């Protein structure tokens, strides 16, 4: 099949590369011309494991190409994917649809034959109807169907998630689209078993419901962790026992510094706003958002408390800046709020992240970005683990102890062994753990 993908971010580029990899002919389009030039030369503009190699291979085979404008590829396409950003709109928290609308109108103008237009971007329920109307107005003669096919890939594991999906949710209100979708996904849908066809509005809402539910799980376990600390329970045991119930499941039950990233914060805000717009309050989601906001400040306060109540003039080492491991994405990362809160009370910050330094330099100010974790820890009063990159699991804590001004560790992901660190002479604080006697 011939596919045009509009938007070459994490979702568009991964989708385009994966569809090319299973044999479709894909052209990816982006407004950002320098990005298109880089991609045409095989240079992927962000870090996603395995993506460089997949892009290079499919460029080489001629199945994947890149273009700064959509005219030709949309005119030739059987399927067009909209994979542009839907950030939080200023003011009310709803998803900003400017990019989706602009892409839809431009696509409409270039359509020549029957085309299935798929919205992969996360968009509020009812957006498919709006997109369809806009496209009809932009080109009344165009023959197309608008489908909702929200994406569930996780950054850091995106290729595997795309190639081996748990489910492929497809919202269609026009049966003409069904055989096209079946053909599109035939190489990865396991005889169609992964395909779940719904109405368009249900598919749109499913994406928000999924992300809000996961975010709710995170805020829930964060509050349970706080309660563990107050009561002498151990959140690791509670999570284990909780997660063994198949109705609950073990994932997303690790306490942390609050959820961040390009999806959970904006999607929970958007769903809460949708609830307000339709007079159907999303109270659990509202609470999830509030708990998460408060969580980042509570983490900064925890660091200050661990340093004796004052960090003015003190050096704090921060390990991990990205919102999770295996990505270079800092969008809404908890590290930002925590670092800014510490800087606000006079701390100086030295940070290390395996992939996030370059994007962090554009967001964080007055931070010493270090070449490795040991340089960050040198002369620090406290070492704070924010993102659980694997390389932090094998740190040489004897070396770190010798180089710190005060050997304190605040572990916001519970990846270190408290008793080992305490035996080395560190003051250790994790999340939701009982005091070590
Ligand atoms: P992104 O910001 O990384 O990329 C969006 C790209 O679209 C940018 O390169 C931008 O230049 C381009 N663009 C914007 N308007 C355009 C237009 N009119 N024509 C051509 N290109 C245009 O975004 P992302 O993280 O890939 O997310 C895209 C969508 O997918 C969002 O709605 C997001 O919520 C959703 N989503 C993201 C993830 C994720 O893990 N990042 C997962 C599932 C769903």
TrEMBL record:
List its EC numbers. 1.1.1.22
> Which reaction does this enzyme catalyse, per its entry?
UDP-alpha-D-glucose + 2 NAD(+) + H2O = UDP-alpha-D-glucuronate + 2 NADH + 3 H(+)
Q: Where is the signal peptide?
A: none
Pathway, per record: Nucleotide-sugar biosynthesis; UDP-alpha-D-glucuronate biosynthesis; UDP-alpha-D-glucuronate from UDP-alpha-D-glucose: step 1/1
Q: State the SUPFAM superfamilies in the record.
A: 6-phosphogluconate dehydrogenase C-terminal domain-like, NAD(P)-binding Rossmann-fold domains, UDP-glucose/GDP-mannose dehydrogenase C-terminal domain
**By its UniProt entry, which PROSITE patterns does this protein fall under?**
PROKAR_LIPOPROTEIN
Q: Which domain of life is it from?
A: Bacteria
Domain UDP-glucose/GDP-mannose dehydrogenase C-terminal, by residue range, is 317-418
Keywords from the named record: NAD, Oxidoreductase
Q: Which family does it belong to?
A: Belongs to the UDP-glucose/GDP-mannose dehydrogenase family.
Protein name from the UniProt record: UDP-glucose 6-dehydrogenase
């Amino acid at each position: 099949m011939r596919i045009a993908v509009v938007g070459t971010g994490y979702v568009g580029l991964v989708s385009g590369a994966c569809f090319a990899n299973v044999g479709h002919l894909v052209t990816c389009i982006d407004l950002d011309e320098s990005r298109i030039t880089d991609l045409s030369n095989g240079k992927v503009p962000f870090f996603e494991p395995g993506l460089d190699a997949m892009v290079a291979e499919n460029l080489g085979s001629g199945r994947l190409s890149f273009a700064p404008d959509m005219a030709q590829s949309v005119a030739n396409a059987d399927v067009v994917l909209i994979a542009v950003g839907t950030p939080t709109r200023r003011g009310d928290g709803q998803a900003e649809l400017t990019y989706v609308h602009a892409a839809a109108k431009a696509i409409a103008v270039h359509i020549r034959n029957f085309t299935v237009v798929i919205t992969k971007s996360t968009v509020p329920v009812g957006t498919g109807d709006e997109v369809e109307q806009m496209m009809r107005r932009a080109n009344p003669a165009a023959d197309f169907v608008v489908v909702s096919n929200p994406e569930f890939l996780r950054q850091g594991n995106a290729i595997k998630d795309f190639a081996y999906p748990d489910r492929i949710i497809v919202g269609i209100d026009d049966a003409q689209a069904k055989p096209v979708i079946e053909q599109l996904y035939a190489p990865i849908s396991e005889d169609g078993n992964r395909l779940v066809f719904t109405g368009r509005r249900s598919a749109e809402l499913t994406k928000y419901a999924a992300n809000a539910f996961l975010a709710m799980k995170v805020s829930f376990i964060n509050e349970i962790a706080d309660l563990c600390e107050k009561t002498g329970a151990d959140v690791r045991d509670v999570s284990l026992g909780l997660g063994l119930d198949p109705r609950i499941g073990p994932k997303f039950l690790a306490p942390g510094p609050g959820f961040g990233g390009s999806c959970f914060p904006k999607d929970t805000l958007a769903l809460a706003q949708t609830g307000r717009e339709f007079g159907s309050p999303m109270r659990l989601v509202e609470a999830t958002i509030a708990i998460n906001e408060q969580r980042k400040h509570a983490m900064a306060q925890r660091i200050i408390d661990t340093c004796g109540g004052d960090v003015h003039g003190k050096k704090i080492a921060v390990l991990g800046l990205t919102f999770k491991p295996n990505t270079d994405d800092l969008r809404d990362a908890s590290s930002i709020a925590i670092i800014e809160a510490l800087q606000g009370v006079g701390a100086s910050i030295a940070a290390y992240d395996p992939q996030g330094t370059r994007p962090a330099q554009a967001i964080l100010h007055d931070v010493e970005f270090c070449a490795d974790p040991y340089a960050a820890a040198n002369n620090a009063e406290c070492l704070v683990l924010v993102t659980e990159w694997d390389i932090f699991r094998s740190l040489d804590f004897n070396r770190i102890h010798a180089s710190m001004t005060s050997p304190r560790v605040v572990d916001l992901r519970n990846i270190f062994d408290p008793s080992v660190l305490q035996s080395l002479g560190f003051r250790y604080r994790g999340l939701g753990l009982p005091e070590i006697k």
